[in-house]
Specification:
It is a single chain. A hairpin with a 3-residue loop joins strand 2 and strand 3. The protein is elongated, with a radius of gyration of 29 Å. Helix 2 packs antiparallel against helix 3 and helix 5 packs antiparallel against helix 6. The strands form two sheets. The chain has a five-stranded antiparallel sheet. A three-stranded antiparallel sheet has the order 6-8-7. The longest helix is centred in the middle third of the chain and has 30 residues. Helices cover 48% and strands 22% of the residues. By secondary structure, it is of the alpha+beta class.
Length: 261
């Protein structure tokens, strides 16, 4: 019967887990049979069965933990196939959920932003019992992203602010409207505190330049593409204005050297 079932299992890892579980069950059945044959005292028999059950629980604790985790995933919908999640510092798209493991198409790691590495990651389902899970697509596919742009103190920062805000509003208008509608729907299911509804720019003064922290909404799966598009448009537009200069570490070193001389 074991051989017949193994032939039907195509995945090598699942075959290994199945063989391991069956091997342990063999031992358990043999112990139960041996105890039943050699022990006649019913009370002592119950104690023996209790000890065996405790031993089996310890031996298969990871199996039961993963099984319960898989059960909770299916019942509560913590994440589904196709969701983009982060768990135990692993970030990726869910491509399979079995009763024991979750399979991710890995993102990030040595690759910048939210692009795939090409690796397949397998995470035990038991991890959801004691780990924080970030779901980037469940109920709300929109996230905030930021671009930090340093400009010199002698730049016209008000003009830079106006130019960048114009680009942000034009390029993210449809996304912002869709996100606002999604948040309204989300507030019917969760308590969502009121927060900024559109793009914004925050200024921060440093010793060397002014940081323009550009904040905007984007779809989870389009974050890098929109980041790239906005960066290009902003740079092209600011280069048309000689009153706005992008700062850099090299510029700061040059200024310091000039000051010393």
């Amino acid at each position: 019967m074991e051989r017949v079932l193994v032939r039907k299992i195509k995945d090598a890892k699942t075959q290994y887990e199945y063989n391991k579980i069956v091997s342990i069950l063999y031992i358990v059945v043999l112990l139960l049979a041996a105890v039943r044959i050699w022990i006649e005292d019913t009370q002592f028999l119950l104690v023996s069965y209790g000890l065996i059950a405790a031993g089996v629980t310890v031996a298969l604790q990871d199996f039961f933990k993963n099984f319960m985790g898989g059960f909770l995933i299916f019942v509560t919908g913590t994440y589904r196939i196709g969701d983009r999640i982060e768990i135990n510092s692993k970030f990726g798209d869910v491509i399979d959920i079995s009763i024991l493991n979750t399979t991710l198409f890995e993102l990030k790691e040595w690759v910048h932003a939210d692009q795939p590495t090409g690796r397949i990651s397998t995470i035990p389902n038991g991890a959801i019992l004691n780990s924080v899970i970030n779901n980037y697509s469940k109920d709300n596919p929109f996230i905030w992203d930021e671009i930090t742009l340093p400009i010199t103190y002698d730049s016209d920062w008000k003009d830079a602010h106006e130019r960048i805000m114009h680009i942000l509003r034009e390029e993210t208008r449809s996304i912002t409207i869709a996100a606002q509608e999604q948040i309204s729907e989300l507030s019917k299911k969760y308590y969502v505190a009121e927060y900024l509804q559109g793009p914004a720019i925050y200024l921060a003064m440093t010793d060397n330049w002014i940081d323009l922290n550009i904040r905007y909404l984007t779809l989870t799966r389009e974050r890098r593409y929109l980041h790239d598009k906005l960066s290009r448009l902003i740079l092209e537009d600011l280069q048309k204005d000689s009153k706005i200069k992008v700062a850099s570490e090299t510029m700061d070193i040059t200024v310091r050297a000039a000051g010393k001389s």
